[in-house]
């Protein structure tokens, strides 16, 4: 959210490296709390985000969707379809997160949830 609210118009945001001291301060800050403000320059915050994303064990965009994005990059219509799929999957993940953390009386079994999700996602694939 920090980058969205404070750095949307920043030039060369993900192209200019951050300062090493800033990066360490940002990492320490985010490792210990959820701060209201993040120390350092916008470039340092952007670089810290890239470092975090590179360190994830799995990519944010699964390999299958990444390959699909590459394959459709020449056709704007296919790009739009793929973006709708990605947006749908993000919406679905947000819904599940909210559902799982707000439902006290869980009436769905894992198999029921899996079958509902698979049939729902299959429509977009």
UniProtKB/TrEMBL annotation:
State any GO BP term from the record: signal transduction
Q: Does the keyword Transmembrane apply?
A: yes
Q: Which UniProt keywords apply?
A: Membrane, Transmembrane, Transmembrane helix
| Transmembrane feature ranges | 83-104
Q: In this protein, which residues make up the domain named Rho-GAP?
A: 1-125
User: Would the keyword Calcium be found if you checked this record's keyword annotation?
Assistant: no
Name the source's superkingdom.
Eukaryota
Protein name from the UniProt record: Rho-GAP domain-containing protein
Taxonomic lineage per UniProt?
A: Eukaryota, Metazoa, Chordata, Craniata, Vertebrata
């Amino acid at each position: 959210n920090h980058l969205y609210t404070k750095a949307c118009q920043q030039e060369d945001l993900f192209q200019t490296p951050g300062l090493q001291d800033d990066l360490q301060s940002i990492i320490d800050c985010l490792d210990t709390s959820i701060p209201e403000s993040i120390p350092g320059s916008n470039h340092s915050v952007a670089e810290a985000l890239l470092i975090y994303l590179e360190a994830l064990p799995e990519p944010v965009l699964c390999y299958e969707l990444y390959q699909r994005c590459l394959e459709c990059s020449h056709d704007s219509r296919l790009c739009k379809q793929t973006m709708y799929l990605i947006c749908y999957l993000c919406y679905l993940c947000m819904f599940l997160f909210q559902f799982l953390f707000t439902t006290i009386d869980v009436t769905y079994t894992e198999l029921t949830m899996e079958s509902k999700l698979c049939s729902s996602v299959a429509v977009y694939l």
